[in-house]
Amino acid sequence: IAHSDERTRNIFLISKRIYAQDTKKIDDDAPKNRKEISYAHDSIFKTATAGAAHAGSGATVNFVHCTEVPRWPGNIREQMATLTESVPDHPNSWFVIEASPNWADTSSVFENYCRAGAAGTSEFTCFFVPWFELPEYALVKFPALGVLDDYETRLRERFQLTDGQLAWRRRKLATSYPGIPNQFMQDYPADLDECF
């Protein structure tokens, strides 16, 4: 379930490409419409857009993937309540909530799921990946860093960041986030607190 019609279409197109490459698929029929793939063993893959009337209501779903929840239109709490109720409490059931932070989200639904999962107080598990865990977010060639500012010093001390990682951050701030370092923090958080 995506936050916009465009993203829903993109997810479905990715799924169609995967389906087309699946040599072990049971059903050789091509997807019949733009939002659903049916399999011969009675499984259905569907995509939907958040905010659609009662998405997930009246169905039993074994796997739900909610993407960009903080950007969903409408009442996020009600939509999540409907969706979580559609997934049975079964070991083969999955409910995934995946998103980038959005400080403009006043519902705090995504934050609540993340913090409860991180604290171990819900059935959800929080998987947080800070920007510096990705190897492509480090430069190999860069000018000497010189003096680090207070935030860079804290990052280096807390997370043992390399010069290449700090140089990548500086370049990204200068090219994509000039004058708006807090936007970088939202889009590339170092920890859960920076997400929210």
Structural description of this entry:
The chain is mainly alpha-helical. The protein is built from seven helices and four strands, in the order H-E-E-E-H-E-H-H-H-H-H. The strands form two sheets. A two-stranded antiparallel sheet has the order 1-2. A two-stranded parallel sheet has the order 3-4. The longest helix is centred in the N-terminal third of the chain and has 17 residues. It is elongated, with a radius of gyration of 20 Å.
Q: Give the number of helices.
A: 7
Structural class assignment: mainly alpha
H/E element string?
HEEEHEHHHHH
In order across it, which strands form the biggest sheet? 1-2
As residue ranges, the low-confidence spans are none
How large is the radius of gyration? 20 Å
Shape: elongated
Distance between the termini: 22 Å
Main beta sheet strand tally, sense and closure: 2 strands, antiparallel
Beta strand count: 4
Average pLDDT number = 86
Percentage of residues assigned to helices? 25-40%
Q: What fraction strand?
A: 5-15%
